[in-house]
């Protein structure tokens, strides 16, 4: 079980809005406030001769903090690309709090059937980014508010649930935990949960999560040393057993 150090805690400031200027040093382009188009390129698989994949995004902070790509999202996207297409090809994947759709779109480029989900204001941006990458046949954009019923249209059996940078607003913590538990009921998927530690309150999310899940740091990511310096962790969550929220 990974432990969360308190040494660099920042107090929760009571705001739902993350400041995009704070330590966003993975996707530097996103420090701008106006809509921009970006291309992110990741090595495909561990073999350098295999090439890269490129995802195109339009980012726009106006619909909310999810309108830009966040560092934990880029870590998870790069990890998935680095594992190569063999892992994800044909799999059913649900991403929570997708924002721009970065992580889910990379999974779709790797051959997965993907459901990128978020709250209503983000959906037009996610549709746009799906189109930009020509992934309409493989990506579904779905409204999913954490804590609510699993929306119609998500598959009965899910292979992977992905979430990046979704721990930042304390009132949403129990809602996100409930949603993770609910999705476990859809065929016990694997959960990849990429987290950037920002605030002391984050540990209350993990206190709630541990009633239902254990977690371990993903052990096969060659970038681990790099992103851990930015207080980013990539966890694999494992459901503890029966029960629910
Ligand atoms: C910090 S952004 C991360 C976006 C993206 N995963 C990334 O890494 O770039 C958090 C995302 O969670 C979504 N979110 C926050 N609260 C939510 C809720 N209650 N239900 C569904 N999505 C939520 C936000 O709309 C936003 O897109």
Automatic annotation (TrEMBL):
Any GO MF annotation of the entry: protein-lysine N-methyltransferase activity
An example Gene Ontology biological process: methylation
First-level EC class: transferase
Residue stretches spanning the membrane: none
SUPFAM superfamilies reported in the protein's UniProt record: S-adenosyl-L-methionine-dependent methyltransferases
EC number(s) per entry: 2.1.1.-
Residues at which S-adenosyl-L-methionine binds: 70, 97-99, 118, 146, 164
Main localization category: cytoplasm
Keywords of the record: Cytoplasm, Methyltransferase, S-adenosyl-L-methionine, Transferase
Cell compartments where the protein resides: Cytoplasm
InterPro entries: EFM6, Methyltransf_16, SAM-dependent_MTases_sf
GO cellular component: cytoplasm
The keyword Ion transport is assigned to this record: no
Gene3D superfamilies the UniProt entry points to: Vaccinia Virus protein VP39 (3.40.50.150)
Family annotation (HAMAP family): Methyltr_EFM6
Protein family: Belongs to the class I-like SAM-binding methyltransferase superfamily. METTL21 family. EFM6 subfamily.
Function: S-adenosyl-L-methionine-dependent protein-lysine N-methyltransferase that methylates elongation factor 1-alpha.
Name of protein: Protein-lysine N-methyltransferase EFM6
Annotated organism of origin: Schizopora paradoxa
Gene designation: EFM6
């Amino acid at each position: 079980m990974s432990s969360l150090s308190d040494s660099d805690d920042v107090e929760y400031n009571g705001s739902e809005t993350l400041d995009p200027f704070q330590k966003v040093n993975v996707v530097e382009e996103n420090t701008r406030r106006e809509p921009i188009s970006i291309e992110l390129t990741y090595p495909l698989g561990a073999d350098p001769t295999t090439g890269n994949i490129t995802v195109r995004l339009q980012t726009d902070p106006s619909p909310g903090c999810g309108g830009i790509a966040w560092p934990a999202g880029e870590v998870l996207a790069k990890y998935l690309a680095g594992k190569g297409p063999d892992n994800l090809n044909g799999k059913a994947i649900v991403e929570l709090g997708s924002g721009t759709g970065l992580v889910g779109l990379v999974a779709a480029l790797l051959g997965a059937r993907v459901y990128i989900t978020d709250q209503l204001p983000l959906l037009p941006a996610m549709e746009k980014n799906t189109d930009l990458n020509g992934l309409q046949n493989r990506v579904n954009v779905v409204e999913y508010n954490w804590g609510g019923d699993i929306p119609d249209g998500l598959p009965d059996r899910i292979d992977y649930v992905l979430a990046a940078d979704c721990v930042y607003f304390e009132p949403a913590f129990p809602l996100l935990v409930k949603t993770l538990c609910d999705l476990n009921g859809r065929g016990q998927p694997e959960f990849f949960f990429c987290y950037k530690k920002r605030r002391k309150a984050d540990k209350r999310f993990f206190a709630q999560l541990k009633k239902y899940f254990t977690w371990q740091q993903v052990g096969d990511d060659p970038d681990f040393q790099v992103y851990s310096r930015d207080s980013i962790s990539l966890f694999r969550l494992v459901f503890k057993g029966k029960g629910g929220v």
